[in-house]
Amino acid sequence: MADRHFFKKNTITIAHLPTWMLIIGYPLFWGEVMFSRYNYGVTTPLAWLLWGLLLLYVTRQAAKENPDGVGHLRSFFVKQPWPVRGVILLGSFLCCFVLAVAFRAAFLPPHLTQELDVLNYHYTVPRQHLIRNSLAHIPWSTGDLFPLSVQFALSPFWFATTLPNKLPQFVFLVGLVLIAVNLLRQLNKEDPLRIFLVVFAVLGAHHVGVQTGTAMLDLILCYLILAALDSFLKGNSVLAAVEFAFYFWSKSFHPIQVGVIAIAMFVILKMAATMNFSVGLSFKTDGYPLTAKVKACGGTFILALAVLSVLIGGPFVLKSFYYSGTPIYPLYAGLIPVDNEIRRNPRDWDIFMAATRKHLTMRDAYGYGRSAEAFFNHLWLIAVPEEGVNNKYDYPVGLVYLICLGPFLFFLIRDIFRKRISVLPLFIILFWLSWWLGSHQTRFLFVPFVLMYILVCADIKKTSAVLQGALVIALLLNAISVYRAHQNDLWKEGQSVLRKEDRKVVKLNRQYIASGREDIVPENSVKLPLPNFRLSSRKNGFRL
């Protein structure tokens, strides 16, 4: 009991601290844009100050609640046989190594191949709003019409100095690991060995490793939906609504995806009830009071989500609707004719729609089609593709996925034969199928796969030497991969990396100004300025 107490108390609150970055950052960014002048794309350090004070408070409370936490951990460790001790020591060292590389990389600006979306709009669009001191549409960026709730919320952290950082992404990576621990403990109340295994699984997954130390947002989105689940199961429906609202309004297709999955789950669970199937939360949680939990927290959650959707998603919906004729650009662009400055000029509208069609064609730019053969082939191809990063499935998900896929399918079939249906495995399947109908980018599979790792670690025999050895091997391979991805940058000064990217951006923007089109340009013809200069006009040029 003491061991379980240690892990629970040290993760239950700290794990949700990344959410408070969004809660603090979102209103601050609006304030910075509307009331700050001549900031040149740099925010105040207020967001970091407030969150740092919150971090200090939470860690002090955790220390008070667990004065002998290290002693409990030591007691658990010495009770284990030597092979298990070796697994724990080696795995813990590799986890620390991965996190250390990620922490170092977090101080460098985005510049890697897999950070192109960051360079094109994640960082650049919010920064241009700061530079302009306006939230009005940026006409030369269709990315400005995407729902950018997470980007806006993190901007006060990203741009607290002239050198953009990736520290929020590192915080969310740590948060994802802690949330995985929290969920595992709710699904299986056994000894801490399973906790070590789920940590090894998350940090040993190659797809997690690819985004470790980068400025991409997919790990953040994975954290949000799993954190919302953790909050809901603990009865904190308002915090769950906050986390889910930011996930919901982070990508254009999320409202449709969530709606389709919700309807499908409702229909399937109703059909299962008519067939006398019992309903559980996961493979291991027989008797979990899921229905009672939904009745107790569901109403508050829905009400809070509705209010937060207006506050968080409303501005993006209105902007998208006004400029593109759809509430979720680029989907259904031009559906409703709106009289705006883009549409008034036929040439501008043609350029705008051409950029829109280019966004939509990305749906079919990945994968090998949607035939039955392609579906079964992708189960292997997404794990070990032939071309590395930016291959037909974006990048490989790696060995942990292959380790967990077999047990997951076994548990799923076992449930069916027992006339039982589990909600979380059903969610994984439906999320996976919704991905299959959309763009086949493996980074969009973080949510179901990380959740699958948690469920497998919660139900599989913890004493399995095969499982322990396989996860440590996967973790070792991923640690090597993470180091190789960042080895050229680990000892570089961040400004040198930044200046290299600046030169590229300056060249592109000079070409843009020379073209004589300052109001709108074809998408992707220009990378907008990231850090130390602003695009103003032909007269003023660039400010370095």
Describe this entry's structure for a reader.
The chain is mainly α. The chain has one domain (2-494). It is built from 23 helices and two strands. It has helices at 2-11, 17-35, 46-65, 69-78, 82-105, 116-122, 124-132, 149-158, 167-187, 193-204, 206-211, 218-233, 237-248, 254-274, 290-324, 341-344, 346-361, 372-381, 399-417, 423-437, 446-459, 465-486, 494-514; strands spanning 278-280, 420-422. Strands 1-2 form a two-stranded parallel sheet. Helix 1 crosses helix 4, helix 9 (167-187) runs parallel beside helix 21 (446-459) and helix 20 runs antiparallel to helix 21. The chain is globular and about 70 Å long. It starts with a helix and ends in a 30-residue tail after the last helix.
Distance between the termini: 59 Å
Alpha-carbon Rg, integer: 24 Å
- Principal-axes geometry comes out as globular
Characterize the biggest β-sheet. Answer: 2 strands, parallel
**Number of E-type strands:** 2
Which residue ranges are poorly predicted, with pLDDT under 50 across at least 5 consecutive positions?
Answer: 1-11, 517-544
Estimated helix fraction: 55-70%
Task: Tell me the count of domains.
Answer: 1
Q: Spatial order of the strands in the main sheet? A: 1-2
| Number of helical stretches of at least 4 residues | 23
Structural category is: mainly alpha
Order of helices and strands: HHHHHHHHHHHHHHEHHHHHEHHHH
Mean pLDDT: 83
Key terms:
544 residues, two-stranded parallel ribbon, disordered C terminus
The gist of it:
The chain has 544 residues and is mostly helical. Helices cover 65% and strands 1% of the residues.
